[in-house]
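Suppose a colleague, Dr. K., hands you the sequence of a protein chain of 189 amino acids and asks what its three-dimensional shape might be. Before reaching for any lab equipment, you can write down a predicted structure in token form. Begin with the sequence itself:
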Amino acid sequence: MKTGLRNVSLLDGTSRLRVPTCRGAHSFADVMPPIANLAVCCLLEMMACLSLCGCGPSTENNPFSQELTDKSGTNRLALLYVPVGFRIGREGHYEFHSLVLNTKVGSKWMKRLSISRTAFQAGTSRRRWVSEIASFDAGTGIAIIKVAEADAPMNAASISYAYSWREWNLFSNEEVRLLRICEDPLERY
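The predicted structure, expressed as tokens, is then:
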């Protein structure tokens, strides 16, 4: 019996998870101790929930995600970050996932639009992401967001990031205008 590790593709198309494999084995139980088998089963169930139940990144217990609701209480803009790699509680590495505008119809929240990390990155060779939301107008689709953007293309040997407040059109996913460059990444609007 030959054992090893193999990559498993995640929902976003990446392959960061490595699981034990065994040629000639009939199941994970053949190559893993019971406690490890239980951990893999729990992980697989969680991944199934994400893909089948419509679950997604949550702002709960996540230090970087953020939600704003407009004055009418019927529109909500969420900045979603997802944990990457191993973490314990809130500790660990998080990456920008998406900006999602939801509208309340009756008693249910319905997704009106979503700007994924890939869509937000489109049109530039420099890495960028949304780091904060200051405000938004659901009628016009204009939001005030803080953007982190690299000073060089993604494949450059050295990269620094500058933070700036920008007016952003959520409907067309494009910058309306640069409001100001931040002196500090934690600068508030």
